[in-house]
Each structure stands twice: as structure tokens, then as C-alpha cells.
Amino acid sequence: MAAPVRTWWCSVLRLSRKQFSTTCAAPIGEKWRKEHGLARTGTEYGPLTDLPDWSYAGTCADGRPAPPMKGYLRRRQQNEVLARRIVMLSEEVDRGIETWKKKQEGDKIKDIHKKSLLLKAKGKTLVKKKFQS
């Protein structure tokens, strides 16, 4: 039963003048925002997301600021976790580079030691080398 339905649907699509797009749509205005140094979307960061949604009406006698919103607290926690991960990975890369440099130095020392253990020129070959240099 599935095969006839599929062939019927394929024939309908072939006869149809409208084209179907299978690409994903880019967010509207993303290019403009990037060109102007803004976030890709309006909800990533900026005053609309970082500032509180409301404040006390009029003048508040004690001058208290509005309590932080749940979304702001969540984003702040996500940013903190991301910052800690960045620092950890950066330190890991630094340790890896130091280890690699120490290994390179150790390899150089081993090469020098191996060269010192090679047989030395003696007799006529030694005299030829002295005169050539």
C-alpha cells in the first residue's frame, strides 16, 4: 500500500509548479546584526535580555534595585560555567604545550647523546678531516 501512495505523491510533486525548499531559513536580520556588531539574534545578549523587565514605579524611598529575573540568573550561571570551562581548557592547552616542549628538549638531548656514542674517526680519516676544515 505504501508504494502506490509514494509513487502517486512523487508524480504530484513532479507536476506541481511550486518548488519545495529543503534548506533551513536563516534568522531574519542576522546579517545586518552581524555587520553592526550586534548579537545574531535579539535574545542572546544586550539590554533587552540583560536588564530587568521592570523596575519600581516612581521614586523608591530605599532605592532598592529590581530583583534579577530568572532568565538573567540562568544566563549568568551559564556564562560562569562557560568561563570556567574556557579557563580549564586554556590551562590544559598550556600544560600540553609545556609537556611537548619538554619532550622536544629531551629528544634533542637523546640525539646529542646518541651522536656522542657513535664511532669516532681515527688515523688517516681523522687527519683528512682536520685538513679539510
Can you put this structure into words, describing what you see?
Helix content is 61%, strand content 0%. The chain is mainly alpha-helical and 133 residues long. It is elongated. One of its GO terms (molecular function) is structural constituent of ribosome. Its main location: mitochondrion. It is found in: Mitochondrion. Belongs to the mitochondrion-specific ribosomal protein mL52 family.
Concise account of the structure shown:
By secondary structure, the chain is an all-alpha fold. The chain has five helices and no strands.
Total number of helices: 5
Query: N-to-C SSE series?
Result: HHHHH
Give the N-to-C terminal Cα separation. 91 Å
Instruction: Give the structural class.
Output: mainly alpha
Relative strand content: under 5%
* Poorly predicted residue ranges: none
Main sheet? Answer: none
Shape by Cα distribution: elongated
- The helix content is 55-70%
Using the CA coordinates, give the radius of gyration.
35 Å
Q: pLDDT average, as an integer?
A: 77
Q: What is the number of beta strands?
A: 0
